[in-house]
């Protein structure tokens, strides 16, 4: 994935292709994300006025979309973000329209095709370490996670770590609810 600066540096290159080609390129990148196919092969079929920048621009759009997916909020209008990254108004509107029309579908497909093993069972137990002459015992939690296709995972953490973990899970749940409109 390209850095924020590389994305910004590459935005001026969009002016070497037409807005129609930019929209077509954004569509191909979204197809690549959704279908998990080879981007270079998909790009080979595109006829562009400036073929030398086709891969660079596709990588730029891909990196931008990946960053958008990682920090996605309820809105899918990414035109202001494209403008902020250095793309001119005309191109940002065209590319934003393509992304906005398909982003929700892409996100849902990615969630459905997730290769992560599904959690089957979660066992948990609270405990207290033995007290010593220097102090009282400290509380802890042990969790055993059982998945469909991999060995069970055991985790032990202190209460502070557990509360941080629980807060992270709530944040993830809220983000998934917003992203998937659940």
Automatic annotation (TrEMBL):
Please provide the Gene Ontology terms (biological process) for this protein. Answer: signal transduction
The record's listing under InterPro entries reads:
COMM, COMMD4/6/7/8
Q: Where is the COMM domain?
A: 118-180
**Highest taxon, organism lineage:** Eukaryota
Family to which this protein belongs: Belongs to the COMM domain-containing protein 6 family.
Q: Which PANTHER family match?
A: COMM DOMAIN-CONTAINING PROTEIN 4-8 FAMILY MEMBER, COMM DOMAIN-CONTAINING PROTEIN 6
Q: What is this protein called?
A: COMM domain-containing protein 6
């Amino acid at each position: 994935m390209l850095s924020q600066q590389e994305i910004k540096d590459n935005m001026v290159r969009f002016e070497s292709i037409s807005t129609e080609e930019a929209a077509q390129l954004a569509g191909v990148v979204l197809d690549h994300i959704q279908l998990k196919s080879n981007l270079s092969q998909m790009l080979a079929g595109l006829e562009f006025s400036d073929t030398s920048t086709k891969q660079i621009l596709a990588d730029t759009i891909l990196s931008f979309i990946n960053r958008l997916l990682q920090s996605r909020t309820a809105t899918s209008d990414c035109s202001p973000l494209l403008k902020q990254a250095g793309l001119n108004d005309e191109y940002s509107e065209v590319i934003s329209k393509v992304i906005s029309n398909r982003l929700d579908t892409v996100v849902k497909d990615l969630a459905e095709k997730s290769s992560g093993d599904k959690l089957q069972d979660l066992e948990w137990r609270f405990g207290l370490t033995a007290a010593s002459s220097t102090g009282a015992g400290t509380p802890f939690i042990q969790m055993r996670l059982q998945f469909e296709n991999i060995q069970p995972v055991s985790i032990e953490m202190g209460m502070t770590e557990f509360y941080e973990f629980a807060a992270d899970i709530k944040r993830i749940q809220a983000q998934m609810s917003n992203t998937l409109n659940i």
